[in-house]
Design brief:
The complex is a heterodimer of chains A (409) and B (624).
Chain A (H helix, E strand, L loop, with lengths): L5 H10 L2 H6 L12 E7 L5 H20 L9 E7 L4 H13 L5 E4 L3 H14 L3 E3 L16 E3 L4 H11 L7 E5 L4 H17 L4 E6 L8 H10 L4 E4 L3 H13 L7 E8 L1 H7 L8 E4 L8 H14 L5 H20 L4 H8 L3 E4 L2 E6 L4 E2 L3 E9 L2 E10 L8 H9 L2
Parallel strand pairs in A: 1-2, 1-3, 3-4, 4-5, 6-7, 6-8, 8-9, 9-10
Antiparallel strand pairs in A: 10-14, 11-12, 12-13, 14-15
Helix pairs in contact in A: 3-12, 4-5, 6-7, 8-9, 9-10, 12-13
Chain B lengths: L2 H32 L6 H22 L3 H25 L9 H23 L15 E4 L2 E4 H23 L1 H11 L1 H6 L4 H22 L10 H16 L4 H21 L4 H15 L29 H20 L2 H27 L7 H18 L3 H23 L4 H21 L1 H4 L5 E4 L8 H24 L1 H11 L1 H6 L4 H27 E3 L6 H14 L6 H16 L6 H15 L3 H19 L1
Antiparallel strand pairs in B: 1-2, 3-4
The chains are: A alpha/beta (409), B mainly alpha (624).
Chain lengths: 409, 624
């Protein structure tokens, strides 16, 4: 890390209460009274690589909070975890189940953007809070935003902007884009096209490839990119597609002497499968958990590793921060009335293991940030170097744009 | 574009084609001999990859030699072959006598179980296998670098083709495979041990799928989603080539490989739909694929799969039906909010499944793409509401019209075919419709779909909407049931049982089938519209393959020989899913296991089981 300022570190140390307290077994009053139930639906079966570490961290955080006295003056926090079936149809039914039969105060979670949007619309219809965690689609807080839907994680626009700003001062003029052919890929590509010229004024897009999600024909795609001879590449592929693309690109020399910006590649979820194929020197967003020196974050990492005998993933961080924000929300609102909760969420600021997070009121988007750095191969696994935490607050949608987008919604 | 680039691009296409062919050849052989459309073929491919990423690194620890790499690949393929044998012995052997569609459903149960088993055994993280020693580098071809391993793959496809040719023409086993592909009954009549033949074929098929998967590990990582992403593509290859024809599969694989390699240059965004367009065109022009032959049994009178003797409701059935309707109507009074929600969904699916049953059970038209009409109905309503601000009532009326219109359009081509080719053409049209909904972002909202499809103000409560759905679904089911008993339904059954004879007595088979197809599409469209308003959103998963498979599973669970089976099946399927999903992350395993258990216990479905109980009860006094 090393780039974190002293004042920030001090602030974090001072506020680093909960996780550390839980670790040393500080004798706090145990939570009593009726539990506050929160419905959490996610693709636990289809997207297990992400969502299982996510659920683990949520349980870890909830237990820590309950040991320290719970929320709302002593009530324990309880999550009801449900699989959303990874389709909007199933997810909407499960969400209704959580809200009606399981008596959850509100719902949180979801992974896929289409699932997140469908649940968000249900929340709007039923006037219940939906705290979206993982879906990245800009639409969730912009064009299709509604009063009842809030999102924690940096959206596609924010993460793309972190990368294009990291490319400032580079001279690459001719760019190629490769993105999976669905909303996330398309909107990342669209964001990239309008943001890159802010960093490199004479940039032009010379080739675009949109392979179908999960079935990239890597040879043909790499060939098509190579043929256009771009100076630099913006990559949005992830998961199995990324592995196939990187292998083919490495063998065919696609990445030699080329700048590559790549979304999400630095997250352990995608780094671990890449193994020793991890390319060197890509500028990526990710989560180099072992390099984060903030005491509060270190305490969470140690607690996570001790309990689950596994290294944390990006999903773990997100799950942990989610619970911290929700606990702060419940304490502030001190009510389960959903309208009161939403008013309390507006500009709610929480100290979390990833620093202060504010739920910005205007677009209902959290300022949780992420790390930007270069990929590097250490031994047989890839990691990041020169990683720098970019606070989400620095790369949010401009307020005028939010107003225009949400007015039309 | 220079020649070097074009050459390398077409080599990339050939490498993909080779891999595709190795997998597809297994599927086409298994289909040729057993007539089973083996959904689990993709699972074998996935297992091959997972085996290889486990076995090969272990062997390479001993010595990093290319030979050990390929030994590991062959071991993995052989293990998968043995799994294929296990599936044949434990499952398929018990159900050769049941309708072919049931076998398909059973293999789909295997798919679900394998998915979760893989997650359990290998964990959710994708596993990247080692590259082949000695083939890691790139080869310079006319100024372009090309992976050496892919050059090897390009040779592997034709090598497998050659080996299969030798097997088929120079060994007794191969001769029997060819004979069984031509005429299975004749082979049985000549005294060939069919059990051995089938087991051997399953081994060969699974071996080839496993080989295809194992050979992929230097290119792609083993992941739990690779089964379903390959299976549709492999279906397309086998159908374009002609089911049962290995050489045809090779030709088709080359065609598709090249189409994709050059397709990404011209249409980088519509790669999804290109292969299905190709399949639709091929089937319209050549109904049995490039090198396929008309099914020999087509002209022979076989026991039809479907409704045999539609009997009217006797007293017990009348009571049961009345009870079911009363229960559906009473749910909002006695059940909680969630029970209402589930009951609404069951009614919607009952209508959709019944409309498919109308096609499959009564018309003998097996549609693998029925979700298309369901989804298109939903999109028609949803788009009217969201884009044009039309209220719910007229939008809901448009849903069946849209479903019927598209069914008429697609059906015009579909009814020209028969059997598995017909089914695959319905699948192709469904996939094209899916791709359009997925890609036409400006109108359909792409994969995110559209939200805000809620009922009018007076109908927003779950209870009121439940009654709307109940009215629509029950009216639709009663109407279709009436058609089954009407002369039109009998005509469809005649056409199903013997098209030539129906033709001979003056029935215009195609027109009747097209009309039946249109009616079923209309009913499915209505179900889709009702579904959209209950969910508040529309998105492409509503017309995706899993939805079509769900519908098929419903009618098969219910039993395709009884008229009302589909309704029971819809309820049962939904109940199983609803019970298992909250229980565990491994709910797909339980869902698959229950499907297989139901297929084994009730080979004629729940409706069939009820019918036989009724028959026994009716026969009891006579014996006494």
């Amino acid at each position: 890390m090393g780039v974190v300022t002293i004042s920030r570190r001090a602030a974090l140390t001072a506020s680093g209460g909960l996780a550390a307290a839980a670790l040393v077994g500080l004798r706090a009053p145990r939570a009593q009274g009726a539990p506050v139930r929160i419905g959490e639906l996610n693709s636990y079966s289809r997207m297990a690589a992400f969502s299982v570490p996510y659920r683990n961290a949520m349980q870890l955080a909830a237990d820590a909070i309950n040991r320290a006295g719970g929320v709302m003056g002593g009530r324990p926090l309880e999550f009801v975890f449900r699989d959303d079936g990874a389709t909007p149809g199933d997810a909407v039914r499960v969400a209704e189940d959580l809200l009606t039969r399981e008596n959850c105060a509100f719902i949180a979670g979801t992974f896929l953007s289409n699932v997140g949007l469908a649940v968000a619309d249900l929340a709007n219809q039923r006037r219940r809070l939906f705290f979206a965690t993982e879906p990245l689609s800009d639409a969730l807080t912009m064009a299709q935003g509604n009063r009842y839907t809030w999102r924690l994680r940096p959206n596609t626009y924010m993460q793309t902007r972190m990368l294009t700003e990291a490319a400032r001062g580079r001279t690459a003029r001719r760019w190629g884009i490769v993105a999976p052919n669905y909303e996330y890929g398309q909107s990342a590509a669209a964001n990239f096209k309008r943001l890159i010229t802010a960093s490199i004024p004479n940039a032009e897009i010379v080739v675009e490839q949109y392979p179908a999600l999960g079935r990239v024909d890597a040879g043909a795609t790499v060939g098509a990119l190579n043929q256009a001879r771009p100076d630099a590449i913006f990559n949005v592929l992830f998961g199995p597609d990324l592995t196939a693309f990187v292998r083919e690109g490495n063998t065919r020399g696609l990445f030699e002497r080329r700048l590559v910006l790549s979304l999400l590649t630095g997250e352990p979820e995608y780094m671990i499968p890449l193994g020793d194929e991890c390319p060197e020197g890509w500028i990526v967003t990710g989560y180099p958990w072992e390099q984060v020196e903030w005491p509060r974050h270190r305490a969470y990492v140690e607690a996570y590793r001790a309990r689950f005998n596994d290294t944390p993933r990006k999903g773990s961080l997100l799950g942990y921060v989610t619970v911290e924000v929700l606990a702060a929300l419940l304490n502030k609102a001190n009510s389960l009335d959903n309208e009161a909760l939403i008013d309390a969420l507006r500009d709610l600021r929480t100290e979390t293991v990833t620093g202060p997070v504010t739920m910005r009121g205007i677009d209902q988007q959290g300022t949780m940030g992420t790390w930007v750095g270069e990929t590097v191969l250490r031994g047989r696994t890839g990691t990041m170097r020169n990683a720098r935490y970019v606070d989400g607050a620095e790369v949010m949608f401009p307020e005028a744009e939010v107003r225009a987008a949400r007015r039309s919604a | 574009m220079d020649a070097g680039f074009l050459l390398v691009q077409s080599l990339s296409g050939l490498a993909s084609a080779s891999s595709l062919f190795i997998i597809a050849s297994g599927l086409t052989l298994v289909f040729g001999v057993t007539r089973i459309v083996n959904f689990a073929h993709g699972s074998f491919y996935m297992l091959g990859a997972y085996m290889a990423v486990t076995v090969v690194p272990w062997l390479l620890e001993i010595e990093r030699s290319p030979w050990l790499f390929f030994v590991g690949v062959l071991i993995s393929a052989a293990v998968v072959g043995l799994l294929g044998v296990a599936m044949e012995l434990l499952l398929l052997r018990r159900i050769y006598k049941v309708p072919e569609l049931f076998q398909l459903l059973a293999t789909f149960g295997v798919v679900l179980m394998v998915q979760d088993a893989v997650l359990k055994i290998w964990g959710p993280v994708d596993i990247t296998g080692p590259r082949a020693p000695g083939l890691r580098h790139g080869v310079e071809i006319m100024g372009q670098r090309f992976p050496a391993y892919e050059l090897f793959l390009i040779c592997a496809g034709p090598a497998v083709l050659g080996a299969l040719w030798l097997l088929m023409h120079r060994t007794r086993f191969g001769v029997l495979i060819r004979a069984a592909t031509r005429d299975r009954e004749m082979v049985g009549a000549l005294g060939v041990n069919q059990a051995m033949l089938f087991t051997g074929t399953l081994f060969l098929g699974a071996f080839l799928a496993g080989l295809g998967g194992a050979l992929q590990i230097p290119r792609v990582s083993a992941s739990a989603q690779m089964d379903l992403s390959i299976i549709t593509e492999v279906f397309v290859v086998t159908v374009i080539g002609g089911m049962g024809s290995v050489t045809g599969a090779f030709l088709a694989a080359v065609l598709i490989g090249q189409l994709q390699a050059f397709g990404v240059l011209v249409f980088p965004k519509i790669t999804l739909v290109l292969v299905f367009l190709l399949m639709a065109v091929v089937l319209v022009v050549k109904p049995w694929g490039l090198l396929g032959k008309p099914e020999p049994a087509a002209g022979r009178a076989t026991l039809p799969e479907g409704i045999l003797h539609p009997r009217g409701f006797a007293l017990p059935e009348k009571l049961l039906a009345a009870l079911a309707v009363a229960a559906a109507l009473a749910v909002p009074v006695f059940g909680d909010a969630y029970a209402v929600k589930v009951a609404t969904e069951v009614l919607v699916f009952a209508l959709a499944a019944f409309s498919l049953h109308f096609l499959v059970g009564n018309g003998g038209i097996v549609s693998f793409g029925h979700a298309a009409y369901f989804g298109l109905g939903a999109y028609a309503s949803g788009l009217l509401v969201v884009r044009l601000g039309v209220p719910m009532e007229p939008a809901l009326l448009v849903a069946p019209v849209a479903g019927a219109a598209f069914a008429f359009l697609f059906g015009f081509f579909v009814v020209r075919l028969s059997g598995i080719y017909l089914a695959m053409l319905t699948l192709a049209f469904a996939q094209i419709a899916y791709a359009v909904c997925f890609q036409w972002v400006e109108v359909t909202g792409g994969d995110n779909g559209l939200v805000g499809v809620w009922p009018s103000a007076w109908a927003t409560s779950r209870h009121v909407y439940h009654y709307i759905v109940a009215a629509g679904a029950i009216a639709g089911i009663v109407a279709l049931r009436h058609v089954i008993y009407a002369p039109f339904g009998a005509t469809l059954r005649a056409a199903r049982d013997s098209a030539p004879r129906a033709d001979a007595i003056g029935i215009d088979v195609r027109t009747h089938q097209l009309l039946g197809f249109t009616m079923a599409g209309g009913a499915a469209g209505l179900a889709g519209g009702l579904y959209a308003f209950s969910k508040g959103s529309i998105d492409p998963t509503m017309l995706a393959i899993p939805m079509s498979v769900d519908f098929l599973a419903m009618i098969l669970l219910g039993g395709i020989q009884t008229v009302m089976g589909a309704v029971v099946g819809a309820g049962a399927f939904h109940a199983i899913k609803d019970i298992f999903m909250p229980l565990t992350d491994y709910w797909r395993f339980l869902l698959g296991a229950s499907i297989i258990a139901l297929v084994l216990l009730f080979p004629r479905g729940l409706g069939g089981a009820f019918a036989s109980v009724r028959a026994r009860v009716a026969a009891e006094p006579a014996r006494a």
